[in-house]
Design goal:
1 helix; alpha+beta; two-stranded antiparallel sheet
Length: 101
């Protein structure tokens, strides 16, 4: 099975990887990724919908302490709003925009 390429779910051309209530958005080989954490859910017709979602723009540099990797953070209501802000932050950061704050 060596050499088998894993296909990831993507959003706007960037990979999405889910681990429990965490979603990582972006390429881990890039300088930045976005981390989304579902903080609360709501039952809707037998389905769990994300309500409050924490969004963080993080550096991927393993030499930087975990607490110092967080560049920006915000809480959003709903997964869609969280994904939109994560994409905006990630695009700006990866384009070299020095004003990502």
């Amino acid at each position: 099975m060596a050499g088998k390429k894993t296909e990831f779910l993507t959003f706007k051309g960037k990979p999405l990887v889910r681990m429990g209530n965490m979603i990582y958005y972006g390429n881990p080989g890039d300088k930045y990724v976005a981390m989304l954490q579902v903080l609360s859910t709501e039952d809707f017709g037998g389905f769990n919908l994300s309500r409050k979602v924490s969004v963080q723009l993080q550096l991927t540099d393993p030499e930087v302490k975990a607490v110092d990797r967080i560049v920006k953070r915000s809480d959003k209501m709903g997964l869609y709003q969280a994904m939109v802000i994560a994409d905006i932050w990630l695009e700006r950061a990866l384009s070299g925009d020095s004003n990502i704050d």
